[in-house]
Amino acid sequence: MDKRCKASFLVLEKNLASFPVAPQGVRRSRRCRALSAFLSVLWSRVPTNVLGGDLRCCCRDPLTGFYRDGYCRTGPGDFGLHTVCAQMTNEFLEFSYARGNDLVTPQPGFPGLQEGDRWCLSVTRWHEALEAGVAPPVDLHATHASTLEFVTLEELQAHTLT
């Protein structure tokens, strides 16, 4: 088995344990080609950020994102559109609490946030905070491109993490 094929299998075993195995009787090399093709398609569909590049991880401690994978990506069921990677400020946390979204108090499966933590925010909440003058700074490389349907790149750039 060549190195690239072996690497594809290792990635598959590590991250895609639920992927079905090839039918009995299919030679390993054919299965390897199929898996390599599958992985290349998977990797080519990396979500983009607001700058047009690959979406980067926002934060893994605390683990954020609608899918709790560290990325501010969205999909079916994410009605809040948690696409903005922001660094929490006390002003924003207080603003969010006043709007009925307590991001500070720990809950089962949620550690509670404090100033300095990064978190995938709902684009509508970030926009509300922008209008109120308390928008937290954002990581443009970790903010999903779909955010631009609701706010401008210029608004985001004015609040870029330094």
Secondary-structure map with pairings?
Elements: H1 3-15, H2 28-44, E1 82-87, H3 90-98, E2 118-122, H4 123-132, H5 153-157
Helix pairs in contact: 1-2
Q: Can you put this structure into words, describing what you see?
A:
By secondary structure, the chain is mainly alpha-helical. The chain has 2 domains: 3-44; 48-162, Phenylalanyl-tRNA Synthetase, Chain B, domain 1 (2-Layer Sandwich), CATH 3.30.56.110. 33% of the residues lie in helices and 7% in strands. It has helices spanning 3-15, 28-44, 90-98, 123-132, 153-157, and strands at 82-87, 118-122. Helix 1 crosses helix 2.
Number of helices: 5
Under the CATH scheme, the architecture of the largest domain is: 2-Layer Sandwich
Total separate domains: 2
Number of strands: 2
Structural class: mainly alpha
CATH topology of the largest domain: Phenylalanyl-tRNA Synthetase, Chain B, domain 1
What is this structure, in a nutshell?
The chain is mainly alpha-helical.
Give me some keywords for this one:
162 residues, mainly alpha, Phenylalanyl-tRNA Synthetase, Chain B, domain 1, 2 domains, two-stranded antiparallel sheet, 7% strand
